[in-house]
Specification:
heterodimer; A: 7-stranded mixed sheet; 4-stranded antiparallel sheet; B: 13 strands; 0% helix
């Protein structure tokens, strides 16, 4: 049973960089059939896609965030990470990591972590 | 970007009755090369991550009760719950994965 777990600071100051890690257990992050994504959900609102990383390291980002987002993989630790720079209060959200498989949606999700941007 | 628009925004259905949620995409999400619609449906209960219900617009994930069904093709899709159970109270989202950026509908809140 694949499990994903987000970790990182729950409070980030405005203009700083949000950094989160998703640790994958019960399966290999190097599986070529999988892709890995970050999705966020502001309190009381809907889901916003942040980006995906694919086998081999190819990344795709939401154009609305592209200039501030980096998603990377550390295969030695079986984890992938999100960095979002120059954050503002609008970046306050529950951040989810998730796994998709070739040609399908996100079948496995982490429990989510609330990140608040505030001084 | 492909815009996903769900209707209605909220819905109240009696136990045992049918619930229908619609999702419309601003562009087709149908790949003619494999005859598949790149459309997924999710269920999200309070305090939980979304749960994938259906892929390819109509293929249920393992373990999803058969009262959940999906239909449609191209730009118009429907999620149907044939006989509403109390545990189905949730927010439902459609998502296109035809192209990036991946986009979600705004969600439909389903209540008893």
């Amino acid at each position: 049973q694949l499990q994903l777990q987000e970790s990182g600071p729950g409070l980030v100051k405005p203009s700083e960089t949000l950094s989160l890690t998703c640790t994958v257990s019960g399966g290999s992050i190097s599986n070529s059939n999988y892709y890995w994504g970050w999705i966020r959900q502001p309190p009381g609102k809907g889901l916003e896609w942040i980006g995906n990383i694919y086998f081999g390291g190819t990344t795709y980002y939401n154009p609305s965030l592209k200039s501030r987002v980096t998603i990377s993989v550390d295969t030695s630790k079986n984890e992938f990470s999100l960095r979002l720079s120059s954050v503002t209060a609008a970046d306050t959200a529950v951040y989810y990591c998730a796994k998709g498989a070739t040609g399908v949606g996100y079948g496995d999700w982490g429990q989510g972590t609330l990140v608040t941007v505030s001084s | 970007d492909i815009v996903m628009t769900q209707s209605p925004d909220s819905l109240a259905v009696s136990l045992g009755e049918r619930a229908t949620i619609n999702c419309k995409s601003s562009q087709t999400v149908f790949y003619s090369s494999n005859n598949k619609n790149y459309l997924a449906w999710y269920q999200q209960k309070p305090g939980q991550p979304p749960k994938l219900l259906l892929n390819w617009a109509s293929t249920r994930e393992s373990g999803v009760p058969d009262r959940f069904s999906g239909s449609g093709s191209g730009t118009d899709f429907t999620l149907t719950i044939s006989s509403l159970q109390a545990e189905d109270v949730a927010v439902y989202y459609c998502q296109q994965y035809y192209t990036t950026p991946v986009t979600f509908g705004q969600g439909t809140r389903l209540e008893i």
